[in-house]
Amino acid sequence: MWKQKLMRKAILYGIVLLLILWPLYSLKQMLTHRGESHDANHLLFQVSVFQMEVLKNYLDEAPQSKSTHDLDAVKQALYSASYTHERLVLAAGGSEELTGLSFMDHLSQFVQRMQLGGTRALKPDEIQTLKETRDQYDKMYDIYEKLMASNGDIVSSQNAKLAELDGDLAAFLRKKGLQ
Question: In this structure, how many other beta carbons lie within 10 angstroms of the beta carbon of residue 80?
Fold first, then answer.
């Protein structure tokens, strides 16, 4: 008889304990929701790196282009990479946390200016500008890959290097656009 009472009490205490611990566990999970945000930012970073790699591949091919029409792929890759990076900047907390990439606007304008007159052969100085842009962008891409730490934070030293290289490339393209 006393074993039966002890068993009922144990079951009752087990149910009460379960009813107390289960909501506490749910509350803990809800409050530590930050992990998913980190995961989303890290996934967005991976997409952005992929878009930057696509742009790098098209910039590698750009100096071999014969005509302005061949630069359409560069223009598309620029748009995609720029769009993705802008979203990453917003997700990372704004331009105070992650630098924007102004060279993309200047490169896009440079390509559009070349294509303005329709399809034509590229001039030697335009090909040289594409080669120099490719070389400078390769350095930027190497930095960009290391921009986010494994915990989802922006690495400030890499961000500073990226900002410097972006400024140099933007100034170079601005100068070429004025010639």
Answer: 17
How far apart CA 105 and CA 35 sit, in angstroms, is 34
Residue positions counted in the chain: 179
| pLDDT tens, position by position, 20-29 | 777 777 777 7
Report the distance separating Cα 169 and Cα 139, nearest Å: 10
What is the pTM assigned to this prediction? 0.77
| DSSP 8-state code for residue 95 | T
DSSP string, 22-57: HHHHHHHHHHTTHHHHHHHHHHHHHHHHHHHHHHHH
What is the C-alpha separation between 111 and 71, in angstroms, rounded?
7
Write the CB contacts of 58 (distance below 8 Å, at least 6 apart in sequence): 73, 74, 77
Q: Write down the residue that tokens 């490719």 correspond to.
A: 134
